[in-house]
Design a protein that fits this description.
By secondary structure, the protein is an alpha+beta fold. The protein has one domain. It is built from 7 helices and 9 strands. The strands form 2 sheets. The chain has a 7-stranded antiparallel sheet with strand order 2-3-1-4-7-8-9, with helices on both faces. It has a two-stranded antiparallel ribbon with strand order 5-6. The longest helix is centred in the first third of the chain and has 11 residues. The radius of gyration is 16 Å and the shape is globular. The protein starts with a helix and ends in a 5-residue tail after the last strand.
Amino acid sequence: MSLLKNLKEYLSDERGSYLYAILDSAIESRVKEYIEQYDLPSWILYKDERDREALREKAPYLVRLNIDDEATEILLEEGYGSNWGCFVVSDTQAEELATHLAQYTKIYSAVHEQQIYMRFYDPRAWERYINILAIEEQEEFFSELNTLLIENPKDFRELWSYRLEHKRVEKRVVSLEESG
């Protein structure tokens, strides 16, 4: 079984009603084209309407996926291992989930003394992001998520699986390599 088949199988087995991807159009310019080509419902993850309009070309997009669709196959083939974003499994409807996640794209920086964008959906930024959140903030972040799945940015043969367990965020490392 190939790495991508293992990833697809793992995503299929995750507990939750819906599978989403958060795709980063600032990293991959083909994200908007991908969304349009497959006519995928998508939501820009910025709270402020001005941000949504001004930054549309470089925005993070929440996209609802069906594990058996061609669009998901293409995303796994082209996006996984290339820092396109992350996957979310949730029981929350897309619009409500987008509103929830949009709260976390900007944080206050004491160093800069202003709100700054924080790209939590970027595999290279995730661990830094989760570690700056207080326990209560982590709990709130995961309140609408069953699982957040993100590629290991240093070794995409590993998938990091995060979920809230007993009011603490737990990380599990999943090997996507063939066993045996």
